[in-house]
Design a protein that fits this description.
Helix content: 40-55%
Structural class: alpha/beta
Strand content: 15-25%
Low-confidence stretches: 1-15, 18-22
CATH topology of one domain: Cytidine Deaminase, domain 2
Order of helices and strands: EHEEHEHEEHHE
Strand order of the largest sheet: 1-7-6-5-4-2-3
Radius of gyration: 16 Å
Length: 190
């Protein structure tokens, strides 16, 4: 089960994968709070990419109701960053969110929704082999989670939205259990 916390205060003194000083600077916390307020109110997806050292914005991209298209220029600015976007429908990070973050070597991927946020953290020291191990762990976790969620959906215990949310949440929880040295997953509620 992912660590559940009540606010951004859980960042105080916490060591991040790859952050040079080991903790998040106040300017980054302030920027995360501001972006949180801004994105949680939007009814379309928006991507914001921040510098993890000082919270400055590297790029921003407006998307559609349920996706932001990532072009090459945006992808280049994502490396070593904190990637933030919103899911207006309140869903957990998708497999595509994970893969984009992994392929572009994002340090953290935050997905905001009206009730809080999901945070995926990636170890920046991963080489090609470690990234492949993490990718495989995520695919295995997804494959293991899908039949469990499908049974609940077919039994009428979950609707479409709830099934998708549970499938992705279970997948990220399992992935973090398999390879905690490469990936962590946190759920934060408001």
């Amino acid at each position: 089960m992912p660590k559940e916390v009540a606010s951004l205060e859980h960042y105080k003194g916490e060591t991040l994968f790859g952050h040079p000083e080991g903790t998040i600077a106040k300017s980054v916390l302030d920027r995360l709070r501001a972006v949180d307020q801004e994105l949680s109110a939007k009814d379309y997806e928006t991507l914001v990419v921040l510098n993890p050292s000082d919270g400055s914005e590297r790029t921003r991209k407006k998307g559609e109701t349920d996706e932001v298209k990532i072009d090459e220029e945006t992808a280049a600015r994502m490396r070593g960053s904190i990637m933030i976007h919103n899911h207006p429908r309140g869903t957990a990070p998708s497999l595509e969110d994970f893969m984009i973050s992994l392929e572009n070597r994002v340090l953290e991927s935050h997905v905001y929704h009206s009730g809080g946020r999901y945070i995926m953290r990636f170890n920046p020291d991963m080489d090609v082999h470690a990234r492949e191990v993490l990718r495989s762990a995520a695919q295995i976790a997804y494959s293991e989670s899908k039949p469990i969620v499908d049974r609940k959906f077919l039994a009428g215990e979950l609707g479409d939205h709830e099934a998708w949310h549970e499938l992705m949440s279970r997948s990220w929880e399992r992935t973090a259990e398999y390879v905690p040295e490469l990936f962590t997953y946190t759920v934060e509620s408001k």
